[in-house]
Amino acid sequence: MIVNDDLDRLRKTARIVNRLAWAVVVGIMVYGVPIVYGYLISHGIPKETAWMLSLIADGALAVGMVATPILAQYGVKAGWVGSLRWVAGFATWALNTAGSWFKEGGPDLGGVLSHTWGPLLMFFAVEAAAQFQRKIADVIRAKEASQKADDDRHRTATEQLRTATAELAEARATINQITEDAIAKVQRAEAEAASIRTTTERQIADIRAEAQSEVDRIRTEAEAEVGILRQRNADAEATIANLRAAAEHATAEHRATLAEVRAKAAEAVALAKAEARTTNISDYRTGGGRKTSGGRNKTTTAAPVRVSLSDEEAVQKCLAEHPEANYQWSQADIVKIVGCGWGRAPRLLEAIQRWHSAATSDTTTEDATDATDDTTTGLPEVTSA
Question: Whole-prediction pTM value?
Fold first, then answer.
């Protein structure tokens, strides 16, 4: 990957810079040992130990150079390690320029300057290497963080892809299973539909055959019943014709009877009126005319002779006097017209009322055949008590 290549290149560059810094430090150390050694010998330092001081100062500076990149790699501040670099660098400069500063006859500025360049270059080389190590460490940490984030994202994406792939595989398996089940269900449904269709068609054919048979049977029975009804209708019409003929014959006989009764009634009424206006001779002889009383004859008016009429004749006489149907009869009217006693009047009144009822009933019946004749029908039969 690109990030790994960048990290490798940065680490390689850091190693190269570190080696070059060490080369500078080692060269300055080698250059400064004789200078410091001569100065220390001149000041009574034994030869056996005079060479060690320069190396010790340079070793302290080397400690700073070794510790700085390690601390920078983990993002830790240098702290005392940085102070150690400064102190070791100043010590190296002081040891290298001490002979020129304390030379007999005064300081040798040219010697100080010439002996300053070595420690100064070593100091700046060490500081530059330390700064470079810190910057490179920051860049490496950023790259590593980026790579870790990329790795985490890649790992997360890989896990999600693996999960999605598993879910997709499971979904595909589920879809395949559902598809197979659906196909099987469709096939079963088609088979059932075909079976139902066949059964339904067979049942429809059976129902049609049964319905046709039932229709034929009903038609036959209906035709037979229609024939029977027509025969019955013909018989009924014949019976009605016979009954109509019999009714007409009975009506004719009834009218003849009524005419005969009417004639008899009219004759009886005429006879009753004549008798009512005629005085019986024997009555006239016995009680009629004038009688004398007290030696003198006194003429009196003869009383009307009461003729004894039957109930039928009495009713006919009353109806001849008042033929209107809505006349309100009373016992006084009957006594006045017939000349009967008050004991007989209730019976005659009841007979007149029965006649009115019978006449009304006859009128209603005869309206269906001959409304004109009903208004002139004869009197009902009245039996004498």
Answer: 0.35
